[in-house]
């Protein structure tokens, strides 16, 4: 059993590439088995936060996922077979990292050879969550495609394998949860209205004017809002 657990733990230990983020995976009501269920579907749930503060969920962040490889059960119980969807000359294994295939996959995304599915994080049970459900088994590229204006550094692209092994390496997880972080910055605008008062002797004084209202507009793609 120890040998099996060791082999199984190594199968997908690098399937999720963690460039600058932490990914937490969990499963519910699992029945432990040595082989994957090829008839099963999976999901990727992304919980988004500002920086490292899990008390600050960040809604309105758009993620897009692209399937870059099919995944099948091999002849051996702990063997998985990967079929690349980004070119016959591109080999994808459990050890493949995003940077290993960056130039190829980025070109496929740019020329729309890969079709992606996009979701925005929405507040749900106190979390800002984007959910991708009913996914076929395979390896997916996850890209942060849009973010609110206060985000200065987007999450680096990463790969997720559906399924992947649990921490003990003795079971498969089909529902993956990722918790990427963003670096954000907020700015402020302080406006002060002043006017000149002319006295009877012709001299002028500058004074702060009270009860003046301002409207702040932001330019979006559709115009000023």
- Give helix and strand order, one letter per element, not per position: HEEEEEHEEEEEEEEEEEEEE
- Gross morphology is elongated
- Please bin the fraction of helical residues: 10-25%
Radius of gyration: 25 Å
DSSP strand tally: 19
Major beta sheet summary:
5 strands, antiparallel
Q: What's the tally of helices?
A: 2
Percent strand: 35-45%
First-residue to last-residue Cα separation: 62 Å
Low-confidence blocks of residues = 1-30
Computed structural class: mainly beta
Average pLDDT number: 79
Structure characterization notes:
The chain is mainly β and about 220 residues long. It has helices spanning about 1-10, 100-110, and strands at about 40-45, 50, 55, 60-75, 80-85, 115-120, 120-125, 125-135, 140-145, 150-155, 160, 165, 170-175, 175-180, 180-185, 195-200, 205-210, 220, 225. The chain has 2 helices and 19 strands. Strands 4, 5, 6, 9 and 11 form a 5-stranded antiparallel beta sheet that branches. It has a 4-stranded mixed beta sheet with strand order 7-8-1-14, with no helix packed on it. It has a 4-stranded mixed beta sheet with strand order 3-2-15-10, with no helix packed on it. A hairpin with a 2-residue loop joins strand 2 and strand 3.
């Amino acid at each position: 059993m120890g040998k099996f657990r060791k082999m199984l733990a190594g199968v997908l230990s690098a399937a999720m590439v963690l460039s600058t983020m932490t990914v937490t995976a969990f499963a519910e009501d699992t029945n432990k088995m040595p082989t994957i269920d090829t008839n099963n579907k999976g999901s990727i749930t992304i919980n988004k936060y500002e920086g490292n503060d899990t008390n600050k969920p960040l809604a309105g962040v758009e993620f897009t996922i692209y399937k870059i490889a099919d995944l099948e059960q091999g002849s051996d119980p702990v063997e998985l077979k990967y079929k690349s969807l980004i070119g016959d000359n591109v080999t994808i294994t459990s050890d493949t990292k995003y940077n290993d295939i960056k130039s190829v996959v980025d070109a496929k995304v740019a020329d729309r050879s890969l079709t992606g599915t996009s979701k925005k994080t929405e507040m749900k049970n106190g979390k800002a969550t984007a959910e991708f459900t009913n996914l076929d088994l395979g390896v997916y590229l996850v890209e942060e495609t849009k973010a609110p204006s206060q985000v200065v550094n987007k999450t680096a692209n990463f790969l997720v394998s559906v399924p992947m092994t649990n921490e003990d390496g003795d079971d498969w997880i089909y529902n993956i949860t990722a918790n990427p972080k963003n670096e954000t910055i907020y700015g402020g605008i302080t406006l002060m209205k002043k006017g000149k008062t002319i006295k009877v002797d012709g001299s002028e004084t500058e004074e702060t004017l009270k009860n003046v209202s301002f409207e702040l507009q932001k330019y979006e793609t559709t115009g000023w809002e």
